[in-house]
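Key idea: predict the complex, not the pieces.
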Amino acid sequence: MRRIRLGMVGGGQGAFIGGVHRMAARLDDRFEFVSAAPSSDAARAQASGIELGLDPQRVYADFRAMAVAEAERPDGIEVVAVVTPNHLHHAVAGAFIDAGIHVICDKPLTRTLDEAIDLVARVRKAGVLFGVTYTYSAYPMVRHARELVESGALGDIRVVQVEYAQDWLAEDIETTGQKQARWRTDPALAGEGGCIGDIGTHAYHLACFVTGLGVTQLAADLATFVAGRKVDDDAHVSLRFDNGARGHLWASQVATGCQNALALRVFGSKGSLSFRQESPEELWYTPLGQPTQRLTRGGPSLGAAAAQATRIPGGHPEGYLEAFAQLYREMADQIEARHAGRACVLAVPGVQAGAQGMHFVDAAIRSHRQGGAWVSLEA
Amino acid sequence: MRRIRLGMVGGGQGAFIGGVHRMAARLDDRFEFVSAAPSSDAARAQASGIELGLDPQRVYADFRAMAVAEAERPDGIEVVAVVTPNHLHHAVAGAFIDAGIHVICDKPLTRTLDEAIDLVARVRKAGVLFGVTYTYSAYPMVRHARELVESGALGDIRVVQVEYAQDWLAEDIETTGQKQARWRTDPALAGEGGCIGDIGTHAYHLACFVTGLGVTQLAADLATFVAGRKVDDDAHVSLRFDNGARGHLWASQVATGCQNALALRVFGSKGSLSFRQESPEELWYTPLGQPTQRLTRGGPSLGAAAAQATRIPGGHPEGYLEAFAQLYREMADQIEARHAGRACVLAVPGVQAGAQGMHFVDAAIRSHRQGGAWVSLEA
Amino acid sequence: MRRIRLGMVGGGQGAFIGGVHRMAARLDDRFEFVSAAPSSDAARAQASGIELGLDPQRVYADFRAMAVAEAERPDGIEVVAVVTPNHLHHAVAGAFIDAGIHVICDKPLTRTLDEAIDLVARVRKAGVLFGVTYTYSAYPMVRHARELVESGALGDIRVVQVEYAQDWLAEDIETTGQKQARWRTDPALAGEGGCIGDIGTHAYHLACFVTGLGVTQLAADLATFVAGRKVDDDAHVSLRFDNGARGHLWASQVATGCQNALALRVFGSKGSLSFRQESPEELWYTPLGQPTQRLTRGGPSLGAAAAQATRIPGGHPEGYLEAFAQLYREMADQIEARHAGRACVLAVPGVQAGAQGMHFVDAAIRSHRQGGAWVSLEA
Amino acid sequence: MRRIRLGMVGGGQGAFIGGVHRMAARLDDRFEFVSAAPSSDAARAQASGIELGLDPQRVYADFRAMAVAEAERPDGIEVVAVVTPNHLHHAVAGAFIDAGIHVICDKPLTRTLDEAIDLVARVRKAGVLFGVTYTYSAYPMVRHARELVESGALGDIRVVQVEYAQDWLAEDIETTGQKQARWRTDPALAGEGGCIGDIGTHAYHLACFVTGLGVTQLAADLATFVAGRKVDDDAHVSLRFDNGARGHLWASQVATGCQNALALRVFGSKGSLSFRQESPEELWYTPLGQPTQRLTRGGPSLGAAAAQATRIPGGHPEGYLEAFAQLYREMADQIEARHAGRACVLAVPGVQAGAQGMHFVDAAIRSHRQGGAWVSLEA
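Result:
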């Protein structure tokens, strides 16, 4: 299968989400990362480019120049990932849309509603593909939740409870130089909405994605609990849905003790669902008048939607892949250390550990053959 | 950073663990996959090679030929991943060891203890690196558990409870053509130990890895519950450790209702730990006489060992990366469909979904400015 | 210790909460149940009185007559429990207040706000004691939660999330003759508030009780999802507290899959708390920047408030008392059956079961003395 | 319904389990507690008798005298509860058995196996009823578990895992004057088995009770981790059942971080069950190849056995009764303080709290009628 040529704007040294996009793009081996504008500072852009293993000629300080140049190359990028702070999404995405290049853009879409409306129009005009990384909609159990609702298993949806609670802004870390906090609490960079934009939009999308419903009216109580902060850090939003369902969305970045506590509950006339992002392998489903069922990724009774988003068997939480990758990373470190003549003691189990396993099996079989007697491991 | 040249034996069409190894090798972008012996059948080997995007000249039907040829090439593989059924581990790993190529080998190490002892000797002689994929030892919270034990936080270890329970062999699916079940229940392919070898070795390694203790004596009660099966499908093993601690290991593949329920509990004179692989983001720690603490990946009070195995922030379970990858995969599908002129309707959120998020933020701020009044979403 | 003389209005045949009040009154042996007005129908009142083992002379059909008569007796009741449907609370409680008798009254206090205000005034005038059974405020871990907030451990309270979700009214069972449903959905008997009064008041009291805060403003969205129902069956209420904290209260009786899912979370500037009534033995406490702690009834680090409400040791959930009572009940059944010459085979373990335990201990010690060898139970 | 006359031996001042027995006997109002031998010291016996509200003539220092005297009275006790330390069970129970009085006896049955065998014979000869308080067998969900196994829902039982883990003896508190620890670690008072007798017998009974199976063979590894202790404080016991099932029992009183972690898992050819005593409201049931179900006390799909042991509705954990009792206890304290002219400020919600609930309902309805507008609570 050929690989799609991918570019990236943002995601240079010190950034967070750019690295996540790159790991994600590698996982299924469908993309080839060939170009980037990682910084508007030319020297820093080139330094990042070298770290990323890119051809220096395809590393740009100016994203507009990148859009033009890549659109002209016969081997130019087919799609760009936009991973800058929010205030640049509109200009960056716009430049690539206009150049006829597909876009993968982080959320929230833009800094203002007007910018968002403008992007919608330009995407339509240019005819390019445009994806927004509302990541949580891609968990297998979220896909299954949506499929269950669509199937009618819940009956008419009556109540929707969604929340996204974090605590990383419980204190004013934006004044202490924390880069992620600084831009997210600056309306000029993040938009007027603070918490409501940064994570409220995730919760909102998740609720609409799973239920298939739209919100017609809302009433919001936004609060700023940390003194001096310029945007909301807590948002309570009452919701009325287009089918008459009621709901509530709570987003908070001052919810002490919460890391990324995104949770959705949907109650219908025939059943209910509950999903917590921090335990993404499970979905709780209760048909009215029957016991609650714990549905698991890869487990019994799941359908096609979950299967399509599943790579590894049930019971191996998805961190299994990362654990596997960790062993490969440590093996790489060992190989490179050996290559360079450096000492390197790492945790990856070695052939001795492998042999110990066989000693164990051997002793177990010896004991078993003696009717379960105690035996020593060194036979 | 340069990429290490990687080969693979096994993992052709229809295999499971080979694909996991390849995703793992890609995640951190430290390896370049350049050669394979995916099948002993030449035609099938070439077909798999094409699927994997390999140079046909570096796709082999004979792993011995591969070891020799790759060792001779100046751009030959530096390390090979052995992902065949157990009975081939010894011959395959041995061929590459003798060719001076590093090895990453799946577990259990070999089919018999003698083969394992032989490999240990040959690794020592050849001086190559050899890693065994006891994957569970690489979870961040397992690394932290080990660090806690080493730090003395648990005092003297007294009791170790470890278990690995599955139910996929609760019925005799090996007679129905299920490939994974067939070789794992055939002593000629899997070894004398069935369940004890396949998953008991994982549990055994995890217990030793975290506690730093060795087992000196054991008493085993192996059972075969499914009629006609030739290997054990359930194993109870009582353990005595080298420091006087006692323990029990239970491995079962007939434990109805369990997917991959690997769990470890360690009790010491000053505290205890509990880890469940199916919830790998958390580790429960109780200092004697104090409340139980829920330690989380990326959360407060973790140390260097966990950090070294952590890629993404706390509260984003590691499946977050897969969800992200899923959006990229779906974007790739859309781009390819567009490329080929095919229709393709997929779940990846589009620019409209992005704009809906901005409509939501805008309405929330409008409501808030009106003292929390209800407002419509279409302003 | 002398026992206090207790009367009851309501709680006759077919009632639910009256029996709970009586068990509660017996548990600590502080009350003597001596009088009742279990029904306004004289014959049914007497029948209930006999079942309850009361002196027929002290069983009344008219609660007003009961108040007068008992107030005049030298051995008259000192306190009355009011366990009627809501619409009678005002008249019944009022009659006993005016007779100078203390009152224990079920919640919600009355059918209307005016009635409640009237009761407050009459209690003040009569100088009697008056308790409302907001039961959930008496759980040991709720008492501890309140103590933690009072101690300042949470800092300034910022956000309060409280909910009480049930599903027993998800369908229109009030039209099928279900007695509990019928009066609770009839505004003439229950009051104008349906779900908001029946369980919303519990959630509201719990939030105020634990935080020590008052609510100054609210915005409510009440809904009736079951066609034909005359009161709300779902209530979303946004809250503003007197210290500036924000919050949300959700009460629902159509929340499919929920039994009595009362839950409270309190987030402050220095820490947070989470309590779920369905797991009342535990309270989750997170100091900002530290791991979450699982506090348990009877466990480490609890204070005086929880201790004062605790009867049995930690780790024995309070259902332990009921299990114990069950064995006594079954022993009573056996004794009575024996008394009456009837056969009676019940689950209470007998002397054989006791002896089997000793066989087990004996065999364990025999095995141990043989170095852990397998032994048979019949020595 | 008449009340059965109950006596008690043991359970005087400073004792624990006697008070539990008395609360249990009161809960269903089936017993009248009329006689006791709370201490072998005459003065202490009388002091305890006064506290317990007993007729001084029926308080005894000598249990043998009590058995004789009560057997002769026309209103003598019908049943005696034996709540002494283990070493007295045999003599005490024997005296009452021989006097023709029914017995409720704490576990383990006796100090030695010989004593147990003797009691079995004497019960048979005397024809009295004899109950052993294996309390955990009386939880509703344990009763349901047994019913499920009996129904064949699990198929053939293959594996049984049972454990009872505590940590209260993790240090040598028996040398510090802790009374419960002292007699439990003294073989002369507790018997040869320490942990294996004290809590191992509970686990053993639970496993046999639920599965209906008997144990034919076992292999035990008993350990004493606390220096100087004279009995085992940790027991690993491998089990073979009469139907061929295998199992393991772990009992420990040095399991740091565990309070009363009694847990049972049963795996059969068609399904499995899991019960944890510390969450006694739920039972996890997995039919092979289907999602795991969370069965709850009072919830859907339960049968007659659980119903027979259930007093209050589902979702109200059984601690609900205790919380209710707590309010009654606090009301009693207030009444007595008033009676005695003492001040008494307690947590029981008063009429003001009741009225606040009605203010809340009133405000919610006002807001709702204004389309969900914010309103103040003081109208």
